[in-house]
């Protein structure tokens, strides 16, 4: 069947005439059928009262079953002619991609966490070892043993403290 669209044409308040157009509904059905979403998703048309205008599995003018499939996600937009274009797809197909992305994010976060822990241990060990060596040298000085050699090449506070401790030990020995 045909869908007819007619609009009056005016200039100011004066009616000039009527313009109309007929659209073969077969063309609309082909367009709706060409909408494919994922593997099982599809599109259909309803009127403003949610009665089916075109659906490849249901008769026109039938009411959409409320409990048809709770595993479907639907998106609806109202067209200029008052019909609703509804696109539906199974939740499992949509969430499959979402689950894949989520898994990738979890793996990436885990790898970053492991790298962060490794770097933290490495940096902590680099800071703690010189402090431990300085503690041993200080304990030797407390026991009146000034014959230790602690060499530090670093220019940070720990290196300065180590060189100061060595200089103090050398002064006490001389």
Question: Can you give a write-up of this model?
Answer:
This protein has 174 residues and is α+β, with helices and mostly antiparallel strands. The protein has 3 helices and 6 strands. Helix 2 runs parallel beside helix 3. The longest helix is centred in the C-terminal third of the chain and has 52 residues. The radius of gyration is 40 Å and the shape is rod-shaped. The mean pLDDT is 86.
List the keywords:
25% strand; 174 residues; alpha+beta; two-stranded antiparallel ribbon
What is the gyration radius calculated from CA atoms?
Answer: 40 Å
Give helix and strand order, one letter per element, not per position.
EEHEEEEHH
- The coarse overall form would be rod-shaped
Largest sheet: 4 strands, antiparallel
Mean pLDDT: 86
Strand order in space, largest sheet: 4-3-6-5
Tell me the β content. Answer: 15-25%
Helix content: 40-55%
Number of helices: 3
The count of DSSP E runs of length 2 or more, i.e. the number of strands, is: 6
Uncertain runs with pLDDT below 50, 5 residues or more?
A: none
- Measure the end-to-end span: 114 Å
Classify the secondary structure makeup into a structural class: alpha+beta
Would you kindly provide a brief summary of this structure?
This protein has about 170 residues and is α+β, with helices and mostly antiparallel strands. The protein has helices at about 25-35, 90-140, 155-174, and strands spanning about 1-10, 15-25, 40-45, 50-55, 70-80, 85-90.
Summarize the topology:
Blueprint (H helix, E strand, L loop, with lengths): L1 E10 L2 E11 H9 L8 E5 L5 E3 L17 E7 L5 E7 H52 L14 H17 L1
Antiparallel strand pairs: 1-2, 3-4, 3-6, 5-6
Helix pairs in contact: 2-3
């Amino acid at each position: 069947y045909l869908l007819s669209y007619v609009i009056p044409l005016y200039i100011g308040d004066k009616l000039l005439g009527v313009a109309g157009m007929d659209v073969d509904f077969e063309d609309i059905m082909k367009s709706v059928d060409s909408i494919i979403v994922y593997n099982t998703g599809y599109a259909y048309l309803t009127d403003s009262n949610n009665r089916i205008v075109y659906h490849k599995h249901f008769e026109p003018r039938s009411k959409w079953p409320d409990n048809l499939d709770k595993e479907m996600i639907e998106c609806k937009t109202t067209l200029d002619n008052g019909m609703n274009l509804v696109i539906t797809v199974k939740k499992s197909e949509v969430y499959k991609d979402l689950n894949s992305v989520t898994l990738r994010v979890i793996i990436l976060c885990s790898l970053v966490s492991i790298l962060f822990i490794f770097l933290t241990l490495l940096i902590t060990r680099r800071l703690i070892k010189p402090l431990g060596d300085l503690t041993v040298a200080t304990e030797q000085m407390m026991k009146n043993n000034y014959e230790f050699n602690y060499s530090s090449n670093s220019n940070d506070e720990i290196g300065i403290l180590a060189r100061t401790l060595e200089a103090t030990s050398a002064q006490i020995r001389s």
